[in-house]
Amino acid sequence: RVRVRGISIHRPIIYGNTAVVLTQQEREALRREGKESHTHRWTVAVRSAASKPDSGIVGGADDISTYIKRVNFKLHETYPTPNRVVDAPGPFEITETGWGEFDVFIRITFIPESGEKPHSFYHHLKLHPWNETNEPEIPPLEEAIRAGPVHAWQYDEVVFNEPYNNFLQTLTAH
Ligand code: SLL
C-alpha cells in the first residue's frame, strides 16, 4: 500500500456530554441499588459533527464507524469497570448516573487499514450549569432543574495526512 502524497482528509467530529438531574423516582430506584448519592444521568459521546435537523440530538448524523474501530472511555475510578469500550458500529457513547464531575479519558482507535495511531484526549464531564458569576459552585438541585440539561461539547477535526490509497477510498466512498 502507498500513501497518497499532498492529500489530507478532514473529518468533523464532536465529543462531550449531556447531563440531566435525576427525577425523584429515578433517585429512589437508585437508592435501592445503593447509589443514594447519585444526582445526575449523563451521556458522554464521540459523534459526527453533523446533526440531523430537529432530532434534538447533538451531532451523529454521519456514520463515523466507517473509519473508527473502537472508542475507549476511561471513567473515574469510583465507577465499576471504569474502562468502558465501545466497538464499531457504535453509537460511541456511554450513559451512566453519578454525583460528580471528572475528566473522562477518551481514546479513538481507527480502523486498521488507516495505519493511524489512536487519538487520545480528555473531556471534563460537566454536570452543573454554568452560573453568571463563573464561580465553581455547585448550585442547588432545584436551580439545576430549572436551568435544564447541561451540554458540554467540543468540535474537533480528525485529520488524515497523506492517507494510504485503500484507506482514502474508504474515506471518500461515504
Ligand atoms: C469530585 N474529583 O470529587 C471528583 C470525582 C467522581 C464522581 C467525582 C461515581 C458514582 C458512584 C461518581 O459519580 N463519581 O459512586 O458510583 O467531585
UniProtKB/TrEMBL annotation:
GO terms for biological process: chromatin organization; DNA repair; regulation of DNA-templated transcription. Residues 3-174 form the YEATS domain. Keywords: Activator, Chromatin regulator, Coiled coil, Cytoplasm, DNA damage, DNA repair, Nucleus, Transcription, Transcription regulation. It is found in: Nucleus; Cytoplasm. Its main location: nucleus. One of its GO terms (cellular component) is Swr1 complex. It comes from the Eukaryota. Signal peptide: none annotated. Belongs to the YAF9 family. Component of the SWR1 complex which mediates the ATP-dependent exchange of histone H2A for an H2A variant leading to transcriptional regulation of selected genes by chromatin remodeling. Component of the NuA4 histone acetyltransferase complex which is involved in transcriptional activation of selected genes principally by acetylation of nucleosomal histones H4 and H2A. The NuA4 complex is also involved in DNA repair. Yaf9 may also be required for viability in conditions in which the structural integrity of the spindle is compromised. Component of the SWR1 chromatin-remodeling complex and of the NuA4 histone acetyltransferase complex. The coiled-coil domain is required for assembly into the NuA4 complex. This is Protein AF-9 homolog. It comes from Cylindrobasidium torrendii FP15055 ss-10. The lineage of its organism: Eukaryota, Fungi, Dikarya, Basidiomycota, Agaricomycotina. The gene is YAF9.
